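ok, trying the design again with the full structure, not the truncated one.
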């Protein structure tokens, strides 16, 4: 798959994830927060909690599940980007969590609190 097609599929998956989260009453704060350390697909607020959301999609099971693709290396990059985001806000005490929206062969799953800062 070419880069442009991959980016388009990724953007489509993120659009679907945002629409789903909005229907669940979650407020989208920012999308595609990028820093040198990494990227956060969606930053949201859910019941007083700041939520960093990673969106992963797999069209077929041949390469494992979408959720399983959030490996230790990816989690570390997300954590670094989240720390940067929190430092920029100036509120290190803000309650936050890391969620994953996994889309496998079209089926969407919202994995709340998928991993923590200690993982």
């Amino acid at each position: 798959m070419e880069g442009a097609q991959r980016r388009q599929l990724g953007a489509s998956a993120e659009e679907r994830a945002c629409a789903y989260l909005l229907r669940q009453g979650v407020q989208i704060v920012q999308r595609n927060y990028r820093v040198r350390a990494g990227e956060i697909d969606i930053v949201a607020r859910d019941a007083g909690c700041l939520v960093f959301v990673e969106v992963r999609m797999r069209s077929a099971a041949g390469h494992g599940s979408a959720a399983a693709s959030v490996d230790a290396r990816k989690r570390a990059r997300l954590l670094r980007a989240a720390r940067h985001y929190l430092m920029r806000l100036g509120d290190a005490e803000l309650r936050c969590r890391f969620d994953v929206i996994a889309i496998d062969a079209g089926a969407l799953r919202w994995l709340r609190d998928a991993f923590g800062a200690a993982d």
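Keeping the full-length input from now on. The chain is about 35% helix and 40% strand.
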